[in-house]
């Protein structure tokens, strides 16, 4: 291996790490943090303690392994300081909190949390670990907030196995949605600013997760599956319907084209409609919200998608659709943290080592985001900075609403259907078969 890091601390990294005050019992632990982070930022095919020690001068496999497992330092406090620093330097407005999970393929049975379980990352049931993650994301910057390993019941019911992996005694079984709500509580306690919470259907289809968000007063936009059931008439009248059946009867003229982000091949656009509906909570209360439907626009292929939101009707359809698609940012974080920073290459078996490695990966990722934000600000010219996702910079998409592309006014929408910036909550003009 002919890749070697600098024997000296990178000046930019030294400035970045200088913002944190970590209490290390031994001075070599501070050096190990800098050397380990430098190694994660180095272009290496594999990033475990052995390969990092050979590529990073001034380190050794034993010292790096001890940094992750035995040295006395508070990784949770370092993560809190990192989040506070990113709030101050890399929150640029209109942010959301993203909740998701990601899998790490593993061999054997000794690594903490490993089990035969489904991983969306792997797309199948496999021998793996699964971690629940929380990210902050706005239109210009995305950075991680927290990570927590999911511990299957087979682990929590085996005290000897947990003891061997050094799992804290107060860690019991929690579902992934419960862990996600715990990460949300942590982000709220740390003051991470956000307009709403965004998650995919694995969370949006969980009634206890939605109840947890609502109990916390959190606005949200979450994916749901086609069999999610809603009422489209007043609560107590009619019967519930599957959301795919509801939206299948909506006239095509009620859908409008919205662009939400510019990709490598141009603006991403789909057809959207939002409908005021109700869902029944686990306690039997009827909760009002918005059923957001998405389907391919003209000339496009793809599946229909469905979302549920409790955002107020002051939020435009364009913003609702953009929030729903903000979730791509956490998937990008997972991909880049694994592909560029070696997040999935930790070879230790202990609970603390897994989370210390994750905290250091988040530190390295945040360093890159911070660098990018600083460079962007230094290059910024006079005048108001343009939102890079603003549709005003490109030609108007076919059928786009006036607020999405500067086009002409749309026809007045039926009551209870969202088109453009105006939304109602009545269903008097819906197809009769839906309100029975």
Helix content: 25-40%
Low-confidence residue ranges: 386-436
SSE class = alpha+beta
Radius of gyration: 24 Å
Kindly report the average pLDDT value: 84
The major beta sheet can be summarized as: 11 strands, mixed
> How many distinct beta strands?
13
State the helix count: 15
Topology order in helix (H) and strand (E) letters: HHHHHEEEEHHHEHHEEEHEEEEHHHHE
Amino- and carboxy-terminal Cα gap:
70 Å
Strand content: 15-25%
Which of globular, elongated, flat, extended, rod-shaped describes the shape? globular
Report on this model:
With 436 residues, the chain is of the alpha+beta class. 34% of the residues lie in helices and 20% in strands. The chain contains 15 helices and 13 strands. Helix 3 packs across helix 4. The longest helix is centred in the C-terminal third of the chain and has 29 residues, at 351-379.
